[in-house]
Design a protein that fits this description.
alpha/beta, 7-stranded parallel beta sheet, two-stranded antiparallel sheet, 8 helices, globular
Length: about 200
């Protein structure tokens, strides 16, 4: 449904502490195997250990790993060594000015940055799917300074996508809660979102 609507990549959500869209590793593997070659398949993993991230990826075989929390153990290089053809996207949860420096530092070690509106500092971590917009002026500074492609996520919908693109100038957009109804992808909402993009 997402590919039909115009998506160029699919975010396949592994186990998370919170947020919508979680599916089993078996389902992620099946979807990743069946998607046409031009479409990206992103494993969204909340693992924070490089070895565990590598093992998660080995089970599902997507072409991209999206790390939604901070890497606490090991290095990105270890992940690349286990899967040399994989791309790594690191999520930065844009909270304040420190997020600009964090993005610049991490961008040197990964293929792309994704800016979201979660809060990994809460007792139950918010690692995406919040439906909230963050400070797009900070996101624009990250786009201008980090030196890698930047995806924008967080509260994007048909009504604000023009402003988001004009303000941030991201490489790409990441959708979640705004195109769901009762936790499931909604074809009408997807079509409305892509129709709004076509008008820009």
């Amino acid at each position: 449904m997402a590919v039909r609507a115009g998506a160029s990549a699919l975010g396949l959500v592994g186990k998370m502490p919170s947020g919508p869209g979680v599916i089993s590793d078996d389902e992620i593997y099946e979807i990743a195997r069946s998607v046409p070659p031009p479409i990206g398949t992103f494993l969204l993993t909340s693992e924070t250990d490089a070895a565990e991230i590598s093992e998660h990826h080995r089970l599902v075989q997507t072409n991209t790993i999206q790390i939604v929390d901070k890497l606490a153990y090991g290095t990105y290089q270890e992940i690349y060594e286990k899967a040399p053809n994989v791309k790594i996207v690191q999520v930065i949860h844009v909270i304040d000015e420190k997020s600009i420096d964090e993005a610049a530092e991490l961008a040197e070690m990964v293929d792309a940055i994704l800016l979201d509106s979660g809060n990994p500092n809460l007792e139950i971590k918010e690692l995406g799917g919040t439906g909230r917009v963050h400070n797009w002026e900070l996101s624009r500074k990250i786009v201008e300074t980090c030196g890698k492609p930047v995806f924008l996520a967080g509260g994007l919908k048909a009504e604000n996508v023009r402003q988001a693109i004009e303000t941030v100038q991201p490489f790409g957009l990441d959708l979640c809660s705004s195109v769901r109804t009762d936790g499931r992808l909604d074809e009408r909402k997807l079509e409305e979102f892509f129709a709004a993009i076509e008008k820009i």
